[in-house]
């Protein structure tokens, strides 16, 4: 894939106008890419399906094993869903709130994730879970590694909708230097292979209102967990 390097740390990450979404890809690491605007052609089909998912398994606040309430609200769909409480992080086939299976992963969402993974060099990606994160202004995600999946052969595919975010992409140690990557509505980040376990996170979301998504950012993170 032909890609541009990520803009340097001196770039003004919030200076861009989200209406000027560019196409193309940027390489963050040996096997990690930002696919600019890649989700845009799917959004119109995807949003009603996402609303349907959230009507079945609404967003909820979760507590980490350390006792902190996450600032992002979460839900899931697919054969497995991710959750956390005081006893640990886990994937389960049932939504712990309803004790019903998580909503089915909608076709549009699955197709988008499979196509984005292939675009980034990961053919045959078959996600069995999509974690849905909702960030209101001020919400963030601390640096972490995605390690609850059974094996790390499959990549992580992460779709940004709504308000802009600054994504932090670090190394294999929490203390490694992070790249700051501005993610706009429709951008997709894919990381896998040698980059699969790199620390990542999201800086607090700035105030704003997105014309389609409102005063929030929704992130869809597809994984093969089981
Ligand atoms: O919201 C994002 O862009 C990243 C989400 C994330 O890191 C995660 O769900 O593990």
Automatic annotation (TrEMBL):
Residues 17-27 have a biased composition (Polar residues). It holds the Pfam family 2OG-FeII_Oxy_2. Residues 1-27 are annotated as: Disordered. Residues 126-226 form the Fe2OG dioxygenase domain. It comes from the Bacteria. PANTHER family: ALKYLATED DNA REPAIR PROTEIN ALKB-RELATED (PTHR16557), NUCLEIC ACID DIOXYGENASE ALKBH1 (PTHR16557:SF2). Its cofactor is Fe(2+). Binds 1 Fe(2+) ion per subunit. InterPro entries: Alkb, AlkB-like, AlkB-like_sf, Oxoglu/Fe-dep_dioxygenase_dom. GO terms for cellular component: cytoplasm. The lineage of its organism: Bacteria, Pseudomonadati, Pseudomonadota, Gammaproteobacteria, Pseudomonadales. One of its GO terms (molecular function) is methyltransferase activity. Fe cation binds at residues 144, 146, 200. Keywords: Dioxygenase, Iron, Metal-binding, Methyltransferase, Oxidoreductase, Transferase. This is Alkylated DNA repair protein (DNA oxidative demethylase). PROSITE patterns: FE2OG_OXY. One of its GO terms (biological process) is oxidative RNA demethylation.
